[in-house]
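Supplementary notes for students who missed Thursday's class. We covered one full example, reproduced here. Read the sequence, then the structure, then the short commentary at the end.
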Amino acid sequence: MKQTPAFPDLVTAMSDARLFGPMFAGPSWDNWRAVLRGAFALPMSPSEIEFFRSIAGREPPGKRVKELDVVAGRRSGKDSVASAIAAYLAVTFKPSGKVRPGERPLVMLLSADRSGARALLGYIKGYFAEIAPFKAMVARETLDGLELVNGVDIVVSTTDYRTTRGRTVLLAIFNETAFWPSETASSPDVEIFRAVQPSLATLDGESMVIMISSAYKRSGLLYDRWKRFHGTDDANTLVIHAKTADLNPTISQATIEAALADDAESAKAEWLSLWRDDLSGYITRPEIEACIDRGITSRQPRPGVQYTAWVDASSGSGKDSMCCAIGHVEGDVSVIDHIIEVVPPFSPPDAVTLIASCLRNFAISRAGADRWALGFTASEFERHRITLDYSSKVRSDIYREARPVIASRRARLLDSERMINQFCNLERRAIAGGGEKIDHPQRGGHHDDVCLVVAGCLVALATPVTGAEAFLEVMRRRIEEPWRGNCDLDDIRAAGDSFSWRFSSEPLVDIWVPAPLVQGMAGTRFVGDRAFIQKTRGEARQILLSQLAWRALNEELATELLGEKA
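Structure (token representation):
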């Protein structure tokens, strides 16, 4: 293994023309130099100490910290400085006696998505390309990083705590930590932070964690670290909290003022680094998990059950999925039976074919949808004899009406971590006039396709249908959908040979029909190749008492009904 050359301290290297000097030239980086002097326990001038106190709320540490958290406005230079630290720690590492033969410590670059981490990697590769002593230490360049001759690997990693285990870590950079989403974990920032601690322990005294991010809502790992350590003279953890102008005086004040005029709450977070008070969580994880039927990811269609569906369409060319949720009502509980998600990229006709096929399995010919489904997607569903009923409700209204159904445990949901985490990532944002907007965060790669269709289905199921509406639906089905072979809806059903219709509140039961009698029998429905009809309990009892063939085919129902009355 090649011997590591001698380098000056980090701040000196930032001014050295042979090292980082050309990339950090000029006085605009002086305040960053003060931050780094404090973090690495380097000598500081009185003016640097005064500035350090103003953004750290504490005295400079007496030794190099193990954790540096920087909550700073956009365009403040966070990526440039963090990547410089990464390059510096990588090239100055001396492995002798610290790691086992063949063990390669990592400089891990983590972000909300791989593109964010690759942006950091781009800075780092730029340093190694331009700085001759650094360039000489590159053994191999890969798509996702660099391998150095001193045994250090610089790699892009994912925000999955399972991938951070097992390797020795020299430095872990958490980029834009306040915006980390996950559809496979409820708290990816916390879980990764915990998972990386044992990996840092091997090189204790040299290893380091750096978190950089703009401020966002008052929750998550970065907010918790800020709340606990900002302004606290902790020996191991340093939290910096600075406005954009504090660390980058070249940003025009007019640009910041224009942003404040356009959207004050957003701009205060983005440029002034203020935690947002207008954001709150939509629902808690315990509230969602209380409604989950654990181990059940899908339910099969049952005869006689009236199912409802909700569709969220997508073009297939972006990052949004096309989704559908199917459910039914049991008493006052809304039950989600099936979720379909078609992940992009996909062909919209193929996605519609898949969803339409599933809807037909549940005997559904109409589904709710948002206004996005207008146009080609709606026409494609029509081609499959599925009609989309466009909702007048906007996304926020759907979530607002779904929340009490979930919070009161009047919902039974499928065991889908993706759905659970999308619900948990939703935010309530106060808007002018006293209203609120409920949506997924706009930064960090968040999505809400799955939870939106589930919420839409819950709202549709929980919305009562009046007798008049039900009667009109029955009439519409007779005229528009005679191919369905039935016209039952809720408490309105076909009455048999004597009358066309009958209004009844008596519960209906499903009776399997013997195969020889299926042909020509009114009101017959099918599940696969098996036929059934619906009758009141009294009517069903009479049939089972007098017809042995029916009784043999419906043994469980016969036991129940014939036991009620001798």
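Commentary. The chain has three domains: 61-270, 285-462, 506-562. The two ends are 91 Å apart (CA to CA). If anything here is unclear, bring it to office hours.
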